[in-house]
Amino acid sequence: MQKEQLTIAVIGLGYVGLPLAVEFGKKRNVIGFDINQNRINELQSGHDSTLEVEDELLVEARGLSFTTNVADLAAANVYVVTVPTPITEHKTPDLTPLVKASETIGKTLKKGDVVVYESTVYPGATEEDCVPVLERVSGLKFNQDFFVGYSPERINPGDKEHRVTSIKKVTSGSTPEIAELVDNLYNEIITAGTHKASSIRVAEAAKVIENTQRDLNIALINELAVIFNRMGIDTEAVLEAAGTKWNFLPFRPGLVGGHCIGVDPYYLTHKAQAIGYHPEIILAGRRLNDSMGEYVVSQLVKGMLKKRIHVEGARVLVMGLTFKENCPDLRNTRVIDIVRELQEYNTQVDVYDPWVSSEEASHEYGITPVREPEQGVYDAIIISVGHRQFEAMGMEQIRSLGKEDGHLVYDLKYLFAADQTDLRL
To answer: What are phi and psi of 347, to 5 degrees?
Structure first.
């Protein structure tokens, strides 16, 4: 297969797939495929509701077309899979989207075609879970009739500095020749360059430990925050002081959600347990990070009681619902833990987030965010996401939302100085 003859199909046009499809679409013919017809209609109209790709960049990708029709995929000879890999309610990997995408590809897979997976998985999943599906549906033989590669996504939603082209890309292939082809293909668009891993399993493992490492570092800082709160020491002040040492890592405490950091470690621990090893440290970090929503509410309730604010029936404003600042991504947001824990205390919770779609919030979590928070009615206010709009409001305006006769402001994101807020993590 000659590189200039390649036509790419990107399967899944979310936060990962669309930016990739757009960049390839500037260079060659690309078929953007998604099962969501509304998403396809939106992109065909020239707009991306995830805000990862600006409207003008969609226009620049002249080789890119969008479809929900599986038959249209037959024109491709390279398939790039960028579907989500979530976890179940029991915190085990859910490969359903990956299996469904592989079944879809298998229907049009031809001799000589290459399938490249970008979705985060545990080591071995591409060859052990995906390849058998491709073989079964297509009737073709792996590494004889078709080939696979793995190049893990490194998208950071909402980050306009670190884009798909400016983040170094790990690549791999099921044969040395395919590894070279996949590497050359990504080098067309990745200005930061690529790193060709020695095998697909190495590339899979590299991806899953990137976010596991971050998860554990944040867990450590979260535990330190709990300790320092009990000692009456400001955590941010401690971290600023420690940060004067050149090799101190600049992590901050907080809620750990999203499609990567709060999910990927479970893929690794699942595989570890499958081979007979029980991971101690990774799961301990996960348990601690998953408990932070409950801890935040316990601190808020204690603060309210100290101020003689009646908890049951109190009105609480939660500012921010997305899993991170300045993006509309609601996937696996842990702010929902705070909301649900507050509801256990029979408080009335209003959620305000100018970034989110009310329809999506209602569909995903059964929450209808308020369009604007009311003035002077809240007993407590939690700044749970560091959106720039909240910082621009200033503490005086945020305080005006609270009751004049007494309220609390809990700043989870260190948007404001310690002497401006009542509580910090």
So the answer is: -90, 160
